């Protein structure tokens, strides 16, 4: 058995004249205006897109590319991506190499940059390939 649902009648016009007291303040219209993202957020998005493109060029995923660089990080500095010392970062950059390949656009030293920024600069240094755990440079590069 089917049931029929009926809607209550809705007036065809809605009055725009309210019956508010004469002393009442006019209604305020509040609009939320979205703020643009911070420069750090924009930079992080740009870096992520660049690394995703590099991964695609190597016919791998972002996760696959990061796994490959993680093996380098383990060889270089025992996987400490934020290392600051004689060599910096998970990849073991020398300060001169970091600066030469544009790392300063992300941080003064590699150990203060995010993992994706370090991978992006690492790909610049190597010309797009990832060293295996036998080809890393424990003394920094």
Give structural notes.
- There is one protein chain.
- Helix 1 crosses helix 4 (115-126).
- This protein has 141 residues and is an all-alpha fold.
- It has a domain at 42-126: Orthogonal Bundle (Lysozyme).
- The longest helix is centred in the middle third of the chain and has 19 residues, at 39-57.
- It is built from 4 helices and no strands.
- The model has no long low-confidence stretch (mean pLDDT 80).
- Helix content is 38%, strand content 0%.
Summarize the structure.
By secondary structure, the chain is mostly helical. The protein has four helices and no strands. It is elongated.
| Overall average residue pLDDT | 80
* Number of E-state strands: 0
> What is the CATH topology descriptor of the domain at 42-126?
Lysozyme
Which series of helices and strands comes N to C? HHHH
Biggest beta sheet attributes: none
Please count the helical segments. 4
Give the helix/strand class: mainly alpha
Can you tell me the overall shape?
elongated
Characteristics:
single chain, 141 residues, mainly alpha, Lysozyme
Can you lay out the helices and strands and say which pair or pack?
Layout: H1 39-57, H2 62-77, H3 95-100, H4 115-126
Helix pairs in contact: 1-4
